[in-house]
Amino acid sequence: MSSRAPVIRTEFFIEGDELDPDEFTRLLEIRPYRTGKKGELSSHPAAARQGVKNPSTFWFIEVEQNSYDMDEGVQTLLAQVWPHRDKIKEYLKTRPTVTVGMNTTIHIDKDRPVYEISLDSIKKLAELECRFMLNDIYPLD
């Protein structure tokens, strides 16, 4: 039996008390995967059933791919937001409590992906002052 390629979910997010998700959507003209406001009931079904509320206001887009290359998802999301980098940087400049980040979660079957992002991705993330996080790695079952 052959193993399946890892499922890699990558998210680009912006969050903070001064964030207005609707305003940010209009600014970028990108439809978010999910948004939420601080104090609202979580939009994640399991968390909502437990009464979990959003700890902060957020906006994010995501991509999920079967891949052995962690950078693919990063590049896919950067391709969407990079043309708007000046708008994003200006938005962040006028709202000091708002931060931007990228988060990757990997679900493996047997084979692991390459845990690496390209120099191009690093440069673009740095220009956006974007945090990069790698979540725990989970079995694919």
The portion of residues forming beta strands comes to 25-35%
The portion of residues assigned to helices is 25-40%
Q: Number of helical runs?
A: 5
Distance between the termini: 15 Å
What report would you give on this structure?
The chain is of the alpha+beta class. The protein is 30% helix and 29% strand. The chain is built from five helices and five strands, in the order βαβαβααβαβ. It is globular. The two termini are 15 Å apart.
Question: What structural keywords apply?
Answer:
5-stranded mixed beta sheet; 141 residues; globular; 30% helix; alpha+beta; 5 helices
Structural topology:
Layout (H helix, E strand, L loop, with lengths): L6 E9 L5 H8 L5 E3 L8 H5 L8 E9 L3 H12 L3 H9 L5 E10 L10 H9 L2 E10 L2
Parallel strand pairs: 4-5
Antiparallel strand pairs: 1-3, 1-4, 2-3
Give a short overview.
This protein has 141 residues and is α+β, with helices and mostly antiparallel strands.
